[in-house]
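Sync notes, pocket subgroup
Present: LS, DG
LS reminded everyone that the earlier model was apo-only. Rerun requested with heme C included. Inputs:
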Amino acid sequence: MIEKVKSESVYSHILKRQLVFKNMLLFLSIFIGFFFFFTACSDNYNASEAKALVEEKCVKCHKLPTPDVRTDEQWDKILARKNDIMAKRNVPTLSRREKRMILRYMKENN
Ligand code: HEC
């Protein structure tokens, strides 16, 4: 009887340690998740860099599209389709960061 109680308490001690370890892992993964989320979100946006990007990337097939020619919703749609058009015409496509930069520039200046 005494032995049984003893072994149970040893077992629950191990369980407790496992629980602490699991919680630590959980917090660590949440922390890492937030870290990557925020670094991915911060593009170090710079309006003149974005403008230069438009002037470089968006004049290869038609004249320079200025932000004011379309609404926010239209820019979303245009930029969503643009990489496909660029790929078909063998023009280097936009990276995800470039796309976000251009989209933000268009929306802030239209
Ligand atoms: C590979 C060639 C190519 C490049 C590079 C290109 N475009 Fe276009 N663009 C087109 C073609 C083709 C059309 C007409 C067909 C269409 O509307 O999808 C068009 C149409 C447009 C239109 C009018 C379409 C509408 O629905 O209102 C806008 C605005 C535009 N492009 C903006 C841009 C911007 C901004 C960039 C730079 C990120 C860009 N384009 C780069 C080929 C290109």
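DG: Residues 54, 57-58, 60-62, 65, 69-70, 74, 78, 81-82, 85-86, 89, 91, 94, 102 surround heme C (CB under 6 Å).
LS: Residues 2-41 form the longest helix (40 residues).
Action: DG to write up.
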